[in-house]
Each structure stands twice: as structure tokens, then as C-alpha cells.
Amino acid sequence: MGFAVIVFPGSNCDHDCFHAICNLLEKPVRYIWHGDTSIEKNEIVIIPGGFSYGDYLRAGAIAKTSPIMKSIKKHANEGRPVIGICNGFQILAESDLLPGTLIRNSSLKFICKNIWIRCESSHSIFTNKMKNKEVLKMPIAHGEGNFFCKKNILEDLEYNQQIIFRYSDSSGSIVKSANPNGSLKNIAGISNKEGNVLGLMPHPERACESILGGKDGLKIFSSALSYSTS
Amino acid sequence: MRKARIHITYKNGVLDPEGQTVMQSLSSLGFQGIEDVRIGKFIEIDISSVDNSKKIAEDIKRMCEELLVNLVIENYEIELD
Lengths: 230, 81
Fold this sequence. Notes:
heterodimer; A: 230 residues; alpha/beta; nine-stranded mixed beta sheet; two-stranded antiparallel ribbon; globular; B: 81 residues; alpha+beta; 2 helices
């Protein structure tokens, strides 16, 4: 049981993810180049952040045509865990593994800072090591993280409890002032209907050790691991 | 050689912060009466194909829907020479 970090041309958080899993979570992890196609059945897939293919056309649009994506779709459709972080979230949305899309931040600015997110339920694959409504601190670093979808899709997301994380203040209140990028309903992370594919804009891999300001990010990886080994 | 020209624009109701910012800049340059600015993409594709126009048009439509356009937020129009 281990993790696989997918590497696209332009990925730049792949080493951070590897470090977090290998040295801090202390679990097996390997890289998979985007041109490869083999994923082990018991692996938890991480699509890291960065600028795959230089964000040409649209963020994540070119990456969805890479050979590894067919294998990731199969992995996901078999109910196995897939986590897309930042550009990884954009790739999952472009690949139709997650609904909606990420558009330009409402401020038009690239935002790089620590924010708070609230875990909406501790029953998901990716939050089972958290308390219900637990508030986590981790950084965001994106120019296009403004989650958008049609009204009926948003209703489905709420009805099916697919909204996994929302931007909140430090006390867990979901308020407009805590929304850094204009995302609908303060959405920071969603899952697919089955719950095994997670996309989130914040960077848990950058919040896994005290020297970086906190360890809240580890809880997402350890939750996925706990689910996979149970 | 055939040429396809594809115009991609945001759907109505989708926030276009770039367009809004350009609109403000045009206003600050003194241009008056600008109601809205929407920014999109323009793609030209040259095709050497012996296929008939119907087949080429179908292929271009598939290119749009499978890669070039994000149907959640964008509309597209195709011109085929």
C-alpha cells in the first residue's frame, strides 16, 4: 500500500508531495511519468500542482490527453483513491473525473498565502482522520482556483455531500471574507459522487511539518491511507 | 488545404474578470458608452484532407468538444473555408 505521484511536464509540486509522503507520513511512494500507463491497484494516486504543459489552452486541458490519464480514469472508476491538488484539481475537472471547472480568481491576482478550510464531514475517504467541521490551515497558490459550475450541478454537489472542503475563517465560519478566489459557496475541494476522487485547490503537501507552519495537510493523506488499508 | 477558424467565448453569466478589467481600462482612457467587454480565444487550424466538408466539419466539432473548448463555461463557433 503506497502512493504514486504523477509527473507531467510542468508539474512543480511533485517533489513536495513525495517528501511529505516519504519523510513525514513515512509511507512508500514513487513517481509515475505521465507517459507511462501502469498504476498498481493498491496505490493512492496524487496528481500534484504546477503548470502542466505551461497551462496552454486552459489549465489542465493538455494534461488530460496524456497516456497516464486513461489509467487514472480506470483506477478512479474502480473506486480507488485519486487526489488532485491545485493543477491536479484542474486536470481532474478537465478530464470529467470531477464536475465543474476552475476559472480565473475573481481578483485577477495570483494568490499565494495561508488560508483556512473547513472539513464538511469526517465521513469521507479523505477526511476520516478529522473531526466533523474541523478547521485546517494550509496554503493556496493559484491564479485560477475559482470553482464554477451550473446551478443544477451545484445542487447535486450539496445533495450528495460532495463538497469536502470550504474556505472558512479560523473559527470555521463560512463567510465571504474568507473566500480568497470567488469560488461558488466557498468551495475549496470536492469529490466525485462515489467519493473516491478528491480535487482541492489548497496544498496539503506544503502543510505537513511544523517548520512550515503546521501539519494539517498530513490528515488528508493519512485519511486516504486509512481508508485504503481498511 | 482547408482552414477552420474557431471562435471561443465565455457563456453568458460566466464571470469574465479579464473582460471587466479591460472595460474599466477603456473607460479610464476616456472611451464612453462601453456596455460590456468579453474576452475569448481565436484558433485557426489548417487541414490537408481529402475528406468532404461534412466529415471535416464533424472532426472540427469533435476537436472543440474533446479538447479546444470547456463546455462548462465556453461557447464556440466554427467557420470552415
